[in-house]
Amino acid sequence: MGRHRFSLSLSRKQQAYLTDFVSSDIISRQQRNRAQVLLHWLADLSAQESGEQLGLSIDRVYSMRRAFSQQGFKDYLHDVPRCGAPNKLTPKLETQLRRLTQQAANKGKRLTLNMLAQRVVELGYTDRICTVTLQRALKQVQAPRPDAMTRRSGAPYTLVQRSRVAEEQAA
What we know:
Layout: H1 12-23, H2 29-42, H3 47-54, H4 58-71, H5 73-77, H6 91-107, H7 113-122, H8 131-142, H9 164-170
Helix pairs in contact: 1-2, 2-3, 2-4, 3-4, 6-8, 7-8
């Protein structure tokens, strides 16, 4: 027997807030997924359909719906992760990375992770950042977005990962 299907009802003000929230560039991927799960639930999509569209498991969609029922509208959308070290990769930094990589791609330049890390620190976005963190961030940024401008190759930017030894030898 399948799970019970409950419908979601939000006020017009909450629906408008949710729509604006999803379209914002400064929210994290987790917050965007949470908001989209609510939008799908509001549109009476099943958990399976919502999960397929967002790349989440059905159980994860159900747990997100359950969290919304327990926490309420604002607390659910603005809930922050509680365990581990704080992430240096903020939504604002993700936006800046996207801009830097797109600018380099438009100029036909190729960036290494080390060059990108140095540039991020030089511009004052953070005090220091690991190339592994940047690599993970670029994987997230590289995920197709509806408003992302793509070049002829289909990729929004070009990234080359080189080792320090190769950079030292080139210098």
